[in-house]
Specification:
The complex is a heterodimer of chains A (204) and B (431). Chain A is built from five helices and eight strands; from the N terminus they run H-H-E-H-H-E-E-H-E-E-E-E-E. Chain A is an alpha+beta fold. Chain A has one domain: Nuclear Transport Factor 2, Chain: A, CATH 3.10.450.50. In chain A, strand 5 and strand 6 form a beta hairpin. Chain B is an alpha+beta fold and 431 residues long. In chain B, strand 14 and strand 15 form a beta hairpin. The longest helix of chain B has 15 residues. The chains are: A alpha+beta (204), B alpha+beta (431).
Chain lengths: 204, 431
């Protein structure tokens, strides 16, 4: 929430320099490719303890998005977070392919600020979503202080008229921080990633 | 229908039915898309021998192939036996296409090479005439990698058709130090519930950005202050340095470059910006790094090639009409030769910016236009901005009628070409 307030304070005051973003480089992309590969391996059900932490976090994330509480959702992300929804299926190389979403922290913040202008025709009225996650499975990853999870994924959306659904799998890299477990990376692999879509301006 | 059409397009307005009438849509798909030099593909989509990619010419299914000698062909994806498509994958490599229905086989230049149990076609005159049963071939010509096709047997050569548009296209292509463009980086495929012409109208419309893109501009201004991205559209744009031009034969151009002294410093912040800029400055020195970064940013050009190719920023937008009120706008991402890999990585993220924060608002406005245009009692769409303001001129250097950026002269130029083609006696044929 603190970051959101900082972003709000920035609003309307162009003298405050825009935040910089330094972490998206070759090493970052190599890491994202490795996580994407790992997420497609066989996973195991969460332990009781993992369900209470990692399982609760991804369920809470979905709930905040469905409630339109994007600032609170933003608070669940690490400082060097990234959200990626490729245009290819299975996911291709993020460094050499455009994506439906490929957002670092700064661009996620822009996305929230864009919706909050209340001027975006594409979000008037705002989308309503219902995220449905299958059982999260933990996939092998070293070092194992990061929790890498995958779940089947279905989001239902309605804005003006007509329900629609997008399906695929969702992966998360969760990382311990002084404030608790946070979302370091999120990957949404839609089964129709490379097909036509209407308005995708809601949060996957 | 021809007679009716001439009453629907007037100098200052056009009739709503041009956007809503399924019969007009059907005629457009046949005559307009078949009779123009219509964009089919970019050569880099079929980079190697025997590569192919599946496309459409209007609604006709087409395969664009490269043969073993490197020549490009456009074949109608329709078996000459019973009509089934013979190619059912979006892209790949194949020397021949075998119809899955009865096994007729065609080479990737269209020749019929195999008919199972061919004796069944024997006549007293002899065996089956394979020469007359090849795949339909569409006349194709290429300009610097851009592949166009036409069914108009009398169409002038492509270069003559493009006219000054070829020079504008050169400017865009030559942002690459090697003149090389690659369409190999995925695409945004955006669908909207509206007529395809709403997208063409919009691409040279310099009137809408300050309004339709208010969300983007406000976000940018609030988060980053003035001078970032296209905030120059917030003031009276006709007092600014942007222009629109009629390039002839329905091709039009909106030029934003007068407002962009340097591209990189003004670009929207995107993932990787700081990290890769630092890498390039360290490796190349400031001057070379800054030069390399300029074409990472969108070109500031909207080049609209009638009827279906909109080259905007760094992307190729292809208009794919699905029905009178349904359109897919495919934004192919590009990279260019002669720049470091870091520039390609930056280009990917920057080519997501407008699809995220800009185009979605336009698409909703197109859909709302389609809704409004359904009202039978309100017949006209106005196209007369700057028609009589005396602000346009014939540019001596280009020979093209040019106007202030909010001039609707590109829309009027589109409709002139549209009327010409839709009322012409075209002879459309495959070879």
């Amino acid at each position: 929430m603190a970051i959101t307030q900082a972003a709000r304070q920035r609003t309307g005051d162009p003298r405050i320099p825009a935040p910089e973003s330094h972490y998206v480089d070759d090493d970052f992309y190599a890491g994202l490719r490795a996580h994407t590969a790992a997420l497609q391996e066989r996973g195991r059900p969460l332990t009781e303890a993992e369900r209470a932490t990692a399982g609760e976090l991804v369920a809470h994330e979905a709930w905040l998005l469905d409630q339109g509480r994007f600032e609170d959702w933003f608070g669940l992300l690490t400082d060097d977070c990234f959200v990626w929804a490729p245009t290819s299926y299975p996911p291709g190389d993020p460094q050499r392919e455009v994506a439906l979403v490929a957002d670092d922290r700064r661009r996620l913040r822009d996305r929230i600020a864009w919706i909050r202008t209340a001027l975006a025709s594409a979000q008037i009225p705002e989308s309503r979503t219902a995220h449905l996650l299958g059982e999260p499975l933990r996939v092998p990853w070293t070092p194992d202080d990061d929790v890498v999870l995958r779940a089947s994924y279905l989001v239902t959306e309605v804005r003006t008229e007509g329900l629609r659904q997008l399906a695929g799998w969702c992966g998360w890299v969760l990382r311990g921080t002084p404030d608790g477990l946070r979302i370091h990376r999120k990957i949404v692999s839609l089964v129709d990633a490379d097909r036509g879509h209407r308005n995708l301006t809601f949060f996957l | 229908m021809r007679q009716d059409l001439t009453t629907l397009v007037r100098p200052d307005r056009v009739h709503r039915s041009l956007y809503t009438d399924p019969a007009i849509f059907a005629a457009e798909m046949t005559t307009l898309f078949g009779g123009s030099w219509t964009f089919l593909a970019h050569g880099s989509e079929v980079p190697g021998p025997h590569d192919y990619v599946r496309k459409r010419l209007g609604q006709r299914p087409v395969i664009v192939t490269r043969d073993g000698d490197g020549a490009i062909h456009a074949l109608v994806n329709r078996c000459t036996h019973r009509g089934a498509t013979v190619c059912r994958l979006d892209a790949g490599t194949a020397t021949r296409f075998t119809c899955p229905y009865h096994g007729w086989t065609f080479s990737n230049t269209g020749a019929l090479t195999g008919v199972p149990w061919g004796a069944g076609y024997r006549t007293p005159a002899g065996a089956i005439d394979r020469a007359e049963l090849g795949l339909g071939r569409i006349r194709v010509e290429t300009y610097r990698g851009f592949v166009f096709g036409t069914l108009d047997v009398d169409a002038p050569p492509l270069l003559e058709h493009l006219g000054y548009a070829a020079t504008v296209l050169d400017d865009w292509i030559d942002r690459s130090p090697t003149g090389e463009v690659r369409v190999q980086h995925g695409a945004h495929r955006m669908e909207f519930a509206g007529n395809w012409k709403l997208a063409y109208d919009n691409s040279a419309d310099g009137y809408h950005p300050g309004f339709s893109h208010r969300s983007l501009l406000t976000m940018r201004q609030e988060q980053y202050g003035a001078g970032v991205d296209m905030q120059y559209v917030l003031a009276d744009v006709d007092a600014g340095a942007q222009t629109v031009a009629d390039l002839g034969r329905g091709n039009t151009f909106l030029d934003q470059r007068g407002e962009i002294p340097r591209f990189w410093p003004q670009a929207a912040p995107s993932p990787g910006r700081e990290a890769y800029e630092a890498v390039l400055r360290a490796r190349l020195g400031d001057a070379l790094a800054e030069e390399a970064l300029e074409p990472a940013v969108g070109s500031g050009m909207n080049i609209n090639l009638f009827p279906n190719l909109l080259i905007i920023g760094n992307q190729l937008q292809v208009i794919e009409p699905l029905a009178v009120n349904r359109t897919r706008l495919t934004w192919y991402a590009t990279s260019i030769g002669g720049v470091p890999d870091e520039v390609t990585a930056i280009r990917m993220r920057l080519q997501e910016d407008f699809p995220s924060f800009g185009e979605p608002d336009d698409l909703v406005n197109f859909e709302e236009c389609q809704d409004g245009l359904s009202v039978p009692e309100m017949e006209w769409v106005m196209t007369h901005r700057h028609l009589q303001s005396g602000r346009s001129w014939i540019d001596e250097r280009t020979g093209c009628e040019t106007g202030p950026v909010s001039d609707e002269l590109p829309i009027r130029a589109f409709w002139r070409r549209w009327s010409e083609l839709m009322t012409a006696d075209l002879k459309l044929a495959v070879t």
